[in-house]
Design goal:
It is a single chain. By secondary structure, the chain is an alpha/beta fold. 38% of the residues lie in helices and 11% in strands. The strands form four sheets. Strands 8, 9, 10, 11, 12 and 13 form a six-stranded mixed sheet that branches.
Length: 390
């Protein structure tokens, strides 16, 4: 297959997104056409936003955290930004009915409700019902990888910080188009086979076509569960995982990651013997999923280094620091990055990082961290602090 220049790859990726953006823009002041083609009249000022699900929460947290009227029970919410400790906790309930969402909206009184994720007729009908019951505008946005740069630009302009949104969109364009152009030219038989283990025992996995499956595909890997179908998640047996014998195993939860390393039952797996088992960083949001929104951008760089260590020059440690600063407003220290890198398989960085200065509320030792999944765990504080490593 002939190689294409980076300019051609980027142009092929961006032109369809630009066409959609231009055709679906506002028709007049106050009007907005969402990803489902619904024309929604927006208020002149948007100060309070209710995310309809976790993907939208991550999007609003990145673009305008001060506008959130509710936040899920993330660890150390007060460490995320000063207002977080006073924001109501949202209990996400999959498949909730419009009446439940409408009741929440009436209690929290947002100016706008945002729903991010795959756009379907059912979600559009749900949005219409909630809006009809409350009178609150409700928009759907598509946060798939293909639409992510466009989404950051349009949502950023909508929420009032256009310059920053353009900066974030450029980061997204480079992560998606650049990696796709470099990795997806590789023939299938040269791509590593990956298993993504969900849950405490790791015996649930994401299929291709699901949000997590999309992240694995975008990074240029072969999902070993692809023969089981597309979309959603499925349970697998221990024998099935051993028969697949993937090159790389990524654990969503620490309990599965620990079992792979310590249980004799898993020593038949070549990924275990070759020490190619990794724990997904997940705080404040996951690098592959949880949720399946803009938080996954840093995961593309991480996965590309795990999959193709000999061909990849990305400094994931530095990129993670840049990403957390740009997207979350969190300045990670070298020690925090090292704590993530230890279980995530991130190579040591040759690039000088941000200054490793003491931060308010820091000091948790990795050995004393509470049990849970990978990533960062902040110490409880009465004053705002940055997230701390496990």
């Amino acid at each position: 297959m002939p190689l294409r220049s980076p300019a051609v790859v980027v142009a092929a990726f961006l032109l369809p997104a630009l066409a959609v953006l231009l055709s679906a823009g506002p028709a007049r002041p106050g009007d907005f056409t969402d990803a489902a083609g619904r024309r929604v009249v927006l208020p002149a000022k948007i100060s309070r936003i209710l995310p309809a699900e976790p993907n939208a929460e991550a999007l609003v947290f990145v673009l305008a955290p001060e506008k959130l009227v509710g936040l899920s029970g993330l660890p150390g919410r007060s460490a995320l930004f000063p207002r977080a400790a006073r924001i109501p906790v949202l209990g996400w309930r999959p498949r909730s009915v419009p009446t439940t969402m409408a009741d929440t909206a009436r209690q929290l009184r947002p100016d706008l409700i945002i729903d991010a994720g795959p756009v379907t007729s059912d979600r559009a009908a749900f949005a219409d019902q909630v809006s009809a019951q409350t009178g609150i505008p409700y928009i759907l946005v598509d946060d798939s990888f293909a639409r992510m740069p466009m989404l950051l630009r349009s949502a950023g302009a909508l929420l009032g910080d256009n310059d920053r949104a353009i900066d974030l969109a450029l980061f997204a364009e480079h992560a998606i188009a650049g990696l796709r152009g470099r990795l997806l030219i590789r023939p299938e038989h040269e791509r590593p086979h990956v298993y993504y283990g969900l849950g405490p025992d790791g015996l649930t996995t994401a299929l291709p076509g699901s949000p997590a499956g999309e992240a694995i595909d975008e990074a240029g890997a072969i999902n070993v569960a692809r023969a089981l179908g597309r979309g959603g998640e499925t349970a697998v047996s221990r024998d099935q995982l051993i028969a697949w014998d993937p090159d790389i195993i990524i654990a969503e939860e620490r309990s599965f990651y620990t079992a792979l390393q310590k249980s004799p039952a898993w020593r038949r797996l070549s990924a275990v013997r070759k020490k190619r088992v990794y724990l997904e960083p997940d705080n404040p949001f996951g690098w592959i999923e949880h949720p399946s929104g803009v938080n996954r951008l840093i995961g593309l760089y991480w996965l590309s280094v795990l999959l193709y260590p000999g061909d990849n020059q990305n400094d994931v440690s530095q990129l993670a620091q840049d990403f957390y600063d740009k997207f979350y407003g969190i300045k990670l220290t070298d020690k925090q990055i090292e704590a993530i890198a230890k279980t995530a398989g991130i190579p040591a960085s040759d690039t000088p990082h941000l200054a490793d200065l003491p931060l308010a509320g820091t000091g948790i030792a990795p050995g004393n961290a509470p049990p849970g999944r990978g990533g960062l765990i902040p110490m409880p504080q009465t004053t705002p602090s940055y997230l701390m490593p496990k």
